[in-house]
């Protein structure tokens, strides 16, 4: 179902009432202009008869206008909330590769900008409906007054619409271009905040970032939006000009064709009254076009994310002990379009056993993190099979499979709550872990929330380790965990924590460059350019040459 369809379905009744109120408002406006025209031409004797209808009609205009705008404002906010949650659900359900390919900038733009543009559709819609009804109603009233003037007006509106359509497709192209430029711009905004330290330390770098990168991207968005809006202004101006010409023709026609001044006044008044709503229609149509573009962009992003169906069943309580993971011929490849290069990992044959520590070692870029992500089910293998305790993981079982793992990757994210189901024992266990990792004087945990995240990188990583251990999953992955720790804590990690987790029967995968501790591994795997080039088991591991 399209996003529009989804939004409309979510608030069907409210939308129907809001459209109804807008229609009533438009009709009441037409009634008002007819009433004014008749009152203007009425004799003093008849004039009093128009007072009550006038009051009733303006009350109807005001009441229906307030109702339709209030309802549409509500629908707009409702739509925004629905869209943001809808996209967020897709983001959460998307495979990691989908997220990496779509990119942070695109996803942020979809959540922040495209959703707002799409929901603005509802803010502009009452104006569009009301204005359209007023224009149609006024045309009907003109037809009632004079067929000839009606036909000339239809011709003027027709020519206006033709001009509009000629500009419209060009305008859409500019809005689309502005949208893609904006994705890039959001990426730069992200870099501006994430890279604040680097920019502050290097003035010329900051200057170049501002002058060349940011200015260029901002300029692209400005240029495309401005062009689109300029085309729209030209269209609007063209429509307005036609109407003014029309008023001029009717006004000066009297020079050649004698006509009743009161009738001419009536026509001119209807024209003038109609011009505002006509502009309202033209003004709001680009908003509708922008909403269409935004909707298409969100749909394209969602398609790119390729969200997987998430298992709705509750996560089974994890097995206290580890599991045996057997990887049979697993492969994964990255294709870099820019560099026209493929990095291929595997085929990998590997078994990870409960109560064993597997060290994954190798040079930078050899594929250790990629293999860890593949093992954890964050990347789908392109070929090969993974077996858990001898049973192959099925096509639709990857989400369940991932629930076997806890991991601290080197680019880990620390949420400010444990996000586990509320459980008083979690706070106690967390307190014990905090003491063990010397963080109890800095952080406390209450109702699953950390008292602070204002910690050093090494301390934050210790906190991430606590979170991973508290999850109680059977398999734990540490990606260069010890890299930011001081020697004392490295010692604690390798000589106390890992053996303790091993003793609990966990299946442990540890990516490490710390050759001093290689002897602690039950199995050591060395990667080079995506291939396993060396394996050592148990005591032999110590003999392996250090890997730089
Ligand atoms: N998201 C990605 N998209 C495309 N290519 C990637 C991506 N992540 C990694 N790569 C490429 O895959 C290769 C292996 O990267 P990986 O991060 O697995 O190496 P690593 O052994 O963990 O390195 P390090 O020790 O530096 O952390 C590298 O050549 C890298 O350029």
TrEMBL record:
The keyword Membrane applies. It is a multi-pass membrane protein. The chain crosses the membrane at residues 15-36, 48-67, 121-142, 148-167, 229-257, 263-285. The keyword Transferase does not apply. SUPFAM superfamilies: ABC transporter transmembrane region, P-loop containing nucleoside triphosphate hydrolases. It is found in: Cell membrane. Its main location: membrane. Keywords: ATP-binding, Membrane, Nucleotide-binding, Transmembrane, Transmembrane helix, Transport. Gene3D superfamilies: ABC transporter type 1, transmembrane domain, P-loop containing nucleotide triphosphate hydrolases. Residues 325-545 form the ABC transporter domain. InterPro entries: AAA+_ATPase, ABC1_TM_dom, ABC1_TM_sf, ABC_transporter-like_ATP-bd, Cyc_pep_transpt_SyrD/YojI, ECF_ABC_transporter_ATP-bd, P-loop_NTPase. Residues 16-290 form the ABC transmembrane type-1 domain. NCBIfam families: cyc_pep_trnsptr. This is Cyclic peptide export ABC transporter. It comes from Pseudomonas coleopterorum. The lineage of its organism: Bacteria, Pseudomonadati, Pseudomonadota, Gammaproteobacteria, Pseudomonadales.
């Amino acid at each position: 179902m399209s996003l529009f369809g989804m939004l409309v379905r979510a608030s069907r009744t409210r939308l129907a009432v809001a459209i109804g109120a807008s229609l009533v408002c438009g009709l009441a406006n037409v009634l008002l202009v007819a009433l004014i025209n008749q009152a203007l031409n009425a004799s003093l004797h008849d004039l009093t008869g128009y007072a009550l209808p006038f009051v009733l009609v303006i009350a109807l205009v005001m009441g229906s206008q307030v109702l339709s705008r209030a309802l549409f404002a509500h629908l707009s906010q409702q739509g925004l909330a629905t869209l943001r949650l809808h996209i967020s659900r897709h983001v959460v359900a998307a495979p990691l590769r989908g997220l990496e390919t779509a990119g942070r900038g695109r996803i942020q733009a979809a959540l922040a900008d495209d959703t707002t543009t799409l929901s603005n559709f509802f803010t502009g819609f009452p104006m569009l409906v009301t204005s359209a009804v007023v224009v149609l109603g006024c045309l009907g009233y003109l037809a009632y007054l004079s067929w000839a003037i009606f036909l000339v007006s239809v011709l003027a509106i027709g020519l206006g619409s033709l001009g509009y359509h000629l500009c419209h497709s060009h305008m859409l192209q500019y809005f689309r271009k502005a949208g893609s430029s904006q994705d890039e711009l959001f990426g730069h905004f992200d870099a501006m905040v994430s890279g604040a330290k680097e920019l502050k330390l290097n003035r010329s770098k900051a200057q170049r970032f501002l002058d060349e990168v940011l200015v260029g991207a901002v300029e692209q968005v400005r240029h495309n939006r401005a062009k689109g809006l300029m085309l729209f202004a030209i269209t609007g101006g063209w429509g307005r000009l036609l109407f003014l010409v029309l008023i001029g023709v009717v006004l000066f026609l009297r020079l050649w064709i004698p006509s009743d001044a009161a009738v001419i006044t009536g026509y001119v008044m209807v024209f003038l009254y109609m011009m505002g709503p006509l502009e309202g229609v033209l003004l709001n149509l680009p908003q509708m076009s922008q909403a269409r573009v935004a909707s298409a962009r969100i749909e394209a992003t969602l398609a790119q994310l390729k969200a997987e169906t998430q298992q709705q069943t509750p996560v089974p309580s994890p097995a206290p002990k580890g599991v045996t993971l057997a990887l049979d011929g697993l492969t994964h490849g990255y294709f870099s379009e820019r560099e026209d290069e493929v990095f291929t990992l595997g085929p990998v044959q590997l078994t990870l056993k409960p109560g064993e520590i597997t060290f994954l070692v190798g040079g930078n870029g050899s594929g250790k993190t990629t293999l860890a992500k593949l093992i954890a089910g964050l990347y789908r293998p392109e070929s090969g099979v993974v077996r858990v305790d001898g049973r192959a993981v099925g096509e639709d079982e990857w989400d369940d499979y991932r629930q076997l793992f806890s991991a601290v990757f080197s680019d880990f994210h620390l949420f400010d709550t444990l996000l586990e189901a509320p459980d008083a024992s979690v706070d106690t266990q967390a307190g014990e872990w905090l003491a063990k990792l010397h963080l109890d004087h800095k952080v406390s945990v209450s109702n699953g929330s950390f008292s602070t995240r204002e910690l050093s990188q090494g301390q934050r990583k210790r906190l991430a380790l606590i979170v991973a251990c508290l999850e109680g999953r059977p398999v734990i992955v540490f990606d260069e965990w010890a890299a930011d720790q001081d020697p004392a804590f490295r010692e604690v990690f390798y000589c106390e924590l890992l053996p303790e987790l091993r003793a609990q029967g966990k299946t442990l995968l540890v990516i490490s460059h710390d050759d001093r501790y290689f002897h602690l591994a039950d199995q050591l795997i060395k990667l080079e350019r995506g291939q396993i080039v060396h394996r050592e088991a148990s005591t032999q591991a110590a003999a392996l040459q250090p890997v730089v």
